[in-house]
Design brief:
Pfam families: Dus. The chain has 391 residues and is of the alpha/beta class.
Length: 391
């Protein structure tokens, strides 16, 4: 059968700004919440490279822990005085607890924007019905969104989600319509299922489909943005209103400077290709910021260790030196080891491209009977709320 040829799709013109409630985000770039990564020190680094432009979201905060004023959680919600708007991501599975957490944020002026996590694929979250498992339960999702939006009042509420649990349980279009109906301000979609975890290739077509399905509010795309060019290309190909950058900035906080340059060609910013000497200086500052934030140099340097492999990716830094850098416990020790590197190395081609977790999962850990009925909320018990934040 002869098919009528279809006209080529016209690329969308990328927007240069994004409105989240009363907040104008320019360029339309958001730092994705990442557990143990997007704390105040890392957000500070990213904002410095962007000149303060963009939106930088805290790591995931558990609603139960916030309501109970867990000490670790109260430290995680601290924002530097220069952070505007202050953006908190909340995780919760109980509508009442989510509502209480949002009300607390409003009453105590803890943030200017609230994002709800329906995208986390890690087992300790999905086995309780949270994160990327939750949108499958349509009524529960609606109840949580309604409580959050009602309690938030003038504060904008957004949500981040995945395509679904797996290829047989796709939820993003239903979840998108529910979000619009309940007054959510914007939606971010990671173009993977929970089963994919961080493996394979992100489905940007799903982002385009969501944008078509919910034209009333902004849609942000997430997944496989490793460079500023990727961000611009995603917006051209999908028509999304902005991008959410996660693993692409691991060990590369200057990516946000690249993004500003890509969306604002006349800004004077350029694509960063730092030498190892310049990278080492950023590493030192990152570790120092963590030490100040934790009020403990040893704890700060230990927390920094996880970033070493990302910062040094592609450079000629031997395995033995990487091991030594990854067991440092003081700034002086870190300084001494960085000084031993061949700091005149230029930015290597091997430093570009994917970084962070790239593995997939064949099975998503879910509560018993979770998939039996997408409208029944059975299986979400009182113990489903996590009691700790940051992951």
């Amino acid at each position: 059968m002869t098919q009528t040829p279809q006209p080529p799709q016209t690329p969308h013109q990328p927007r240069t700004r994004l409105r989240i409630g009363p907040h104008m985000v320019q360029p339309p770039v958001v730092l994705a919440p990442m557990a143990g990564i997007t704390n105040a020190p890392f957000r500070t680094l990213c904002r410095e490279f962007s000149g303060g432009k963009g939106l930088f979201v805290s790591e995931m905060i558990t609603t139960r822990a916030l309501v109970e004023r867990d000490a670790k959680t109260m430290r995680l919600i601290h924002f530097d005085g220069s952070e505007k708007p202050r953006s908190i991501q909340l995780y919760g599975v109980d509508p009442t607890t989510v509502g209480k957490a949002v009300q607390m944020i409003v009453d105590e002026d803890l943030a200017d924007h609230i994002d709800l996590n329906f995208g986390c694929p890690v087992p300790k979250v999905t086995r309780k019905g949270g994160g990327s498992a939750l949108p499958y339960k349509r009524h529960l999702l609606r109840s949580i969104l309604r409580e959050a939006v009602t309690a938030a009042g003038p504060l904008p509420v957004t949500m981040k989600m995945r395509k679904g649990i797996d290829d047989d349980h796709i939820t993003f279009l239903d979840a998108g319509r529910i979000a619009v109906e309940e007054g959510v301000t914007a939606i971010a979609l990671h173009g993977r299922t929970a089963a994919q975890h961080y493996g394979g290739t992100a489905d940007w077509e799903a982002i385009a489909r969501l944008k078509e399905a919910v034209p009333e509010i902004p849609v942000l795309g997430n997944g496989d943005i490793w460079s500023a060019d990727d961000a611009v290309r995603m917006m051209r190909e999908t028509g999304c209103d902005g991008v959410v950058v996660g693993r692409g900035c691991l060990g590369r906080p200057w990516l946000f400077g690249d993004l500003v340059a890509a969306f604002e060609p006349g800004s004077g910013a350029g694509s960063a290709r730092p030498t190892l000497r310049e990278v080492a200086a950023v590493m030192r500052r990152h570790a120092e910021l963590l030490a100040e934030w934790l009020a403990d140099e040893e704890r700060g340097v230990i927390d920094f260790r996880k970033h070493v492999a990302w910062y040094t990716k592609g450079f000629s830094v031997g395995s033995e030196m990487r091991k030594r850098l990854a067991i440092t416990s003081s700034l002086a020790e870190l300084d001494a080891l960085l000084a031993e590197l061949d700091l005149d190395q230029e930015w290597p081609p091997g430093a570009d491209g994917p970084r962070g977790r790239t593995s997939g999962r064949n099975r998503v850990v879910l509560p018993d009977g979770w998939l039996d009925d997408p409208y029944d909320c059975a299986g979400v018990g009182a113990d489903a709320e996590l009691d700790t934040s940051g992951g």
